[in-house]
Amino acid sequence: MDFEKMREEMIKHQIQRRGIRDKRLLSAISSIPREKFVPEGEKNSAYLDCPLSIGMGQTISQPFMVALMTQCLSLKGAETVLEVGTGSGYQAAILSKLAKMVYTVERHSQLADRAEKILKELEIKNIKVVVGDGSNGLEEYSPYDGIIVTAGAPEIPQSLIKQLSEKGRIVIPVGNSFSQDLLLGVKEKGKLKISNYGGCVFVPLVGQYGW
Ligand code: SAM
Q1: H-assigned helices in the chain
Q2: C-alpha 165 – ligand 1 centre gap (Å)
Q3: How much is the pLDDT for 1?
């Protein structure tokens, strides 16, 4: 399998063609071997235009969704970012190429351990994986310039709004447990200014401020 070629095709047909043009983002996606983050038997499907199962009833998100959510954060390189929902670790790996430091929280320790192992193999050093209920955020390292929630929430958790810095950006799917809208909130004078990036489907955010 020529994964590098598959990756370039994915970027061209699934990501650029849908309007993602940011050069730093495209180069970050190009530098991360997505096949490493999917289970052994699924490697041939790693570059398909869809989410894939990663065990524990969870998924690695569709490549375009990863690109769109990352673009929403407008990262320039100096930011501290919180991800809620580590899953495979793929999204965190992309973020690590675009921000200074990434904290990522996963409620399933098996997934967190697996993600941590892959990230170590790839020698990515600016990601800290934490096991816990990320719907509470991660106060210890706050405030965050960007927060990305990769599971569907009933509403934007107050805990996360609190831990976002002024002018910080939060991207999060909000809706019911079957379908959501992808929302971007930018914090201005302590309040979020919201834009809607359209419909999406994520596994539920489970926890104190989730389902
Ligand atoms: N970002 C992931 C990736 O790149 O593979 C995909 C994440 S998957 C769509 C959503 C993840 O959110 C699942 O792994 C799930 O266990 C996790 N999750 C759900 N509720 C959570 C919570 N309250 N705290 C932390 N993780 C949570």
Answers
A1: 3-10, 23-31, 63-72, 90-96, 109-121, 158-162
A2: 23
A3: 86
